[in-house]
Fold these 2 entries.
Entry 1:
Amino acid sequence: MKIQRLLGITMLLLSQRRINAPTLADKFEVSLRTIYRDLETINTAGIPIVSFAGNDGGYEIMEQFRIDRQIVTFDDLQSILVALKGVQASLDDKEMDDLLTKIKALVVRSEHNQMEESGETLLFDTNLWHGGGLKDKSMLVSLRQASKLRKVISFLYTNTEGVEEQREVEPIGIAWKGYAWYLYAYCRLRSDYRTFRLSRISGLRIHLEHFTNKGVHMSELDARWGNQELGPSIPLLLLFQPRLRVRVEEAFGLDNIERQDDGSLLVSTSYPDNHWLYGMLLSYGSDVRVLEPAFVAEKIRIQGEQIASNYSRPAIPIEP
């Protein structure tokens, strides 16, 4: 355990500029005295640790120090390569090609043979099954460059209601969330930070104007939006037909499902009362019935009747 803790502290100090002893003690669940002894042990082993006093004080490894490849195992390198290949599949970026080449150079010849013999046991690919990502790839590269160079961009954005708006933003970076790419940016129209789904962006333009970094990082924005509700959540009681068992289990989780005697699935869950909720429920068609609350069931009924009315009139013939 001590060796693992020493290695963990070293990796943490290498990845962060400065960190104080109480933070290390909390992370590794040991006393301050133990952390001080660990830091001295690491320093004695030849990894130079320097300390700083004051409110912003703490410990860090000397800037000139570099750790060699011996600490990175063959399995570590394989995992890094898998992740990089998956990202490269979407980005198609020369910089990513160069990085892949550098990482591969760390794999010695004997390990190349081992890699070929074992084959790939993990595939990470951000491309969707239906493909067709040429537009997204070029957009990803452009947005990434604009974010790095701090160039103002503008585009036409379509929201979930189908409303189009021209936006001018200061891009922070791009992120893969769930199954789609998003742009994190400061929106000048809204005077606040926003996320924009790339599939809804068109007419992208990169301007010559540069913006000043406001000191807000993607990790901060991600944490802010991750804890932000899209409206007050409401409890739902849903009844699904048995044939949807697999889909329902994947969507709601086994803990929220109660199987009935006739095989139907009773689901207890909660979601914000917004446009997405009704679209999600309607996607199950006649295989779901909303039991509670009554006002959600009534909205689904009204929307279902509106859909049916689209087919009650003769279709307008489309000329070839």
Note: The mean pLDDT is 82.
Entry 2:
Amino acid sequence: MLTIAVTGATGAQGGAAARAALAAGHRVRALTRRPGTPAATALHDLGAEVRAADFDDPASLDTALAGADALFAVTTPFSTGTGSDTGTEIRQGTALVDAAARARLGHVVLTSAAHADRGTGIPHYESKRAVEQHLRASGLPWTVIAPAAFMDNYASGWTLDGLRTGVFAWPMPAGRPLTLIPATDIGAFAALVLGRRDDFAGHRIDIASDALTPAQIAAALGTALGRPVTHRQVPLAEVRTHSADLAAMFAYFTDHGLDVDVTGLRRAYPEVGWHTFADWAHGRDWAALLGR
């Protein structure tokens, strides 16, 4: 049994990792800036120890990490409410790694993004790459898990806006494959890695559980909703008016793809219980999400 600190514990990836680690029998410290939120309370009810911690408060990180065996680290450039803030992600990720080094943790598992180590030119991939590089240089035992595109994003934002009218609006050509993964599988893989440090330390692993084209995603969403859904390619210029960062990401997905060895991962780590996109879509409460 390990004592695992989890940052971003009230978010999608951190919450999934915390739940998976608890299910595996580990002690979990759920680190959050807002210990009183419903998400934090839910983790407490599952057996996690909820602690207040702030990336911009080194003393709070030192207190939260003291005596822990390992850390699941989540960083994001999208936490300030002002779009992509890559400088904040690098600053906070660096502070977290430095705190882990001061605490002399036995293992840090950092969640990044598939292909972020390839010089993509996508701003929030480059900030994750910088945090990865700082972790590698820290002297700590480390593993980087790098998820593909999040399935969970297909149940929010402009996707829901389009689905209300039977349209899957997505900024990619209908036939261009994209690798995908739900937060649940990220958490399950993280728990596996945390429990097997000797097998994974020093490795960087891109992870995904399915690969579909936008046309296939539209069809799967239509099956889950019980009515036809058609794909419409959103122009990148339209995306760029909202976020140059996301426009760069979708341009990369279209021009280069986001290849991850889904078959190999399923074969090597069946205990993760990988979900297909159809599995994920059928597990959503679409009526509630769509307000119907």
Note: The radius of gyration is 19 Å.
